[in-house]
Amino acid sequence: MFNRTKLCSSMLVAFGGGVAAFSPMAQAQTAPSDTPTAERVEVTGSRVRRIDAEAAAPVQIVNREQIQQSGVVSIGALLQQLPSIAGAATNPQVNNGGGDGASTISLRGLGSERTLVLLDGRRLGAGFDVNSIPLNLIERVDILKQGAGATYGSDAIGGVVNIITQKNFTGFNVAAQVGAAGKGDAETKNLELTFGTSTDKGHVMAGLNFNKQGLVRSGDRKFSAQALYWYTYDGAVNVLKLGSSSTPQGRLSLPASTVLPNGKTAAEQFGCAGSTIRLTRKTGAAGTSLDDFRCYTGADSYDYQPQNLALTPQERVSLFVDASHQVTDAVELFATVLHNRTTSGFQIAPLPMVASNDGWATSANNPFGISFGSTAAGGAVGTNMQVRPVDLGKRQSNNATTLSQMTLGARGAITDSSWTWDLAYTYQGYRQNSGVSGYINGGLLQNALTNDAFNIFNVTADNPTGQASLVGLTPFSVGYTNFTSTNERTLDLVLTGDLYKWTPGTIQAAVGATYSKANLSVKVDELTRYVPPTYNSCLLAAETCGGDTSGTQNVREVFGELFIPLLKDMPGAKALNLTLGSRLSSYDSFGSTTNSSAKLEYRPVADLMVRGTASQVFRAPTISDRFGATQGTFPTFIDPCASATGNEPGYDRACQYIPPNSGYDQDNSQILGFLGGNKNLKPEQGKVFTLGFVYDSSLIKGFSVTADYWNDAISSGDPTTIAAACLNTPSDTFCNRIKRDPGTGQIDNIDLSNLNAGYIKTNGIDVSLRYMLPPTAYGRFRLGLDTSYTKSFKYDLGNGVEQEAAGTLDPSYGNFAKWRVSGNVQWGMGPFGVLWTSRYISSTNISNSKDSNFCSTATCQTILVRQGGVTYHDLALSYSMDKTKTKVIVGVNNVGDKQPPLAYQFQLNGNVDVQTYDTIGRRWFVRLEQAF
């Protein structure tokens, strides 16, 4: 949930290569050996239009056949399975912290904000929801696995995803697909209607796509049915079925020295250990006397997990039109229009009411004779109250998201020259209405508590007192609706052509300019609007509080690319080409930045190409990064002050109000944090170097191999790091972000707004193999293998401590399994086809903190959990009837019903890494296509 927007430097090394595009699996790009025409094309990663499609950039392809045989109803599910994807991009399996149905792409684990998404080479923006693009519009997807700042501008640090649409489609095609999980849930329905016609003057293609994905309840899967926690205490390891300390019976906190109405201290009355006494109401008790309460234990915690979802429901409707018309021999008009509407929503457990966070307090008219809760609302110092009125129902959302994308333009040739031009205007609009239910109006609640309208110490329906409290509390149960809208308008011009002919070939160039203006507007519900500087003070729970915001950003860019053939058909040099590029970007927010690149391609012989790239990349802060309103969130937190000695240089600031060696312990594992923008953010800057080779064998027909080595660097932060950095290397950058309660020293909140700090350094190797076997009497076989090995993923969150995430499920950046492998075997004979696909994710470790600033030498880098390796198998059978133009595909995904490895509650709710592994299990699908 923490926005990673930091200053960094980046280096990427990739032995990148293309291989033959014969497999439906993801594959690297190459030019076919029998190209029928010498038409110049623009390939992903370059602006220069060349006859040979194979260039200095490693590009993978997901083609249309693979999409159809995968059984997916949205493209994100397929793209996130590629071996080059890592980290923690969102998807519809993310329930708590998700729920809008989106899927984003994180190449190399560098984050979706550093992976640029294009539609036919035009920007859709980092973090774009690829599920918004309907499947029947897509011809293929190109994945550029290296930074490309000089070519595409901001955000192309981890790489580029270029979605290529169908062109010159003729006829009418209907496709319908249904499917479900083996357990009967996760039902899918998909309908595609595509119409197209073309003449020698142009074409028109139009389509409709409707798809629906059913939900999966966490309680219906064994791995997620209960909240499982992994604890270590005094060297012993315990797996406990625990949950939240905000329980239906409630949890009260008060100082042990508190004198009660009977004259006893709280410690004497209840016998609980510690300087802070924590109590809960006895089951069935009225909550009207001291005898109705006892010491709280971990066994009293509330298991919220069965109320959650393992897969959020979603429904999408898309309409699109793609058209072109040749006005003259030299001028062509073109247009692409896309409109998508997605509805989805999360479902999480009933609201935990936490007085200190939400800003309310009880009256003193209770068995304890004191007010519990927020001191600002009159609560006694050192007290708190947590309660969960489960009978009021779950928290749920209904998100309606609309995307409108339109490109209008003209292209053509400059008379009597090799030069072509392309002028286009693009509009992209995004709107989201997010309605959420299941909250309590805090203003009305506080008034009722002050006037003792009901007994907040008992809000369960198991006795008359609780039933009466629920009657009093129910009118305050409300929902809220927030509105977000963004739009971006872009005008771009690109010219390409020949500059100079000489012996090795023709020097070619591409030059262009771009102007764009983006707008952001966020309107929050009156119930959730905070009054600064108390950002957790609104009429609902602190996690909902936010504010209206708006902002604009203007960008002007000019760029150029030069392709220079240096040698051709020479001894030891079949070809040697150099490509130079540069882009000047001017932002109204921070000024200008220039990013350049140099690419070299060398063919010693026809079968082998060696290539390298040196380039600069950057990521400009977005409008949300700069103007995003402060908003509450509840990240996991390990308080370094619990083990601090008092001798640390920043103790007085990091552990304010906590006497050294006082026995302080952290009250809650989740604390209130505030996300938000920073108008003073500067861009991330990086450098990229690639070196690679491609071998496409002429000795073994149909066989090719490619290998990639890469190395990169970027950054982020979390609340634990902020507190630890303040404790050990105190500075205003970190210490000013921490606010503690003056009475208890417990964290009140931590500022998690964006800042420029930290870095990532990562490296690894990719290997791809392809082999198309010669035809046999038993059909034709094709084999494919893609492998990505992450050797290292080191990062510093800004506190000067470098940590290693490779081979781990990292709390800041997500899953970095060292090995990710995708392989396939395809067989075809006449109308029949079979595709078997396997996907392997190696084991990962979940460790306690590796930061010696806040863990002892004895426990640092201790592996708490080892997630085993996982292999998924998918099978698809197809039958094509040429006479009737009918095709049937029947498939089973996750054939072995492989369950995700347990990660317990270390990261997102669900006990597993929902951003990496399959939470659905075995599922089937049937697809029918009919062409007319």
Automatic annotation (TrEMBL):
Note the SUPFAM superfamilies from the entry.
Answer: Porins
Instruction: Tell me which GO cellular component terms the UniProt record holds.
Output: cell outer membrane
| Record keywords, A-Z | Cell outer membrane, Membrane, Receptor, Signal, TonB box, Transmembrane, Transmembrane beta strand, Transport
The subcellular location is:
Cell outer membrane
Keyword Transport assigned to the entry: answer is yes
Q: Which PROSITE patterns match?
A: TONB_DEPENDENT_REC_3
Name of a matching Pfam family: Plug
How does the entry describe its membrane topology?
Multi-pass membrane protein
> Boundaries of each TonB-dependent receptor plug domain copy?
54-160
Grouped into one coarse class, the protein's main location is: membrane
Q: Where is the signal peptide?
A: 1-28
Q: Does the keyword Membrane apply?
A: yes
Give the TonB-dependent receptor-like beta-barrel domain ranges: 391-895
Q: Which family is it part of? A: Belongs to the TonB-dependent receptor family.
Instruction: State the name under which the record lists this protein.
Output: TonB-dependent receptor
Q: From which source organism is this entry?
A: Ideonella aquatica
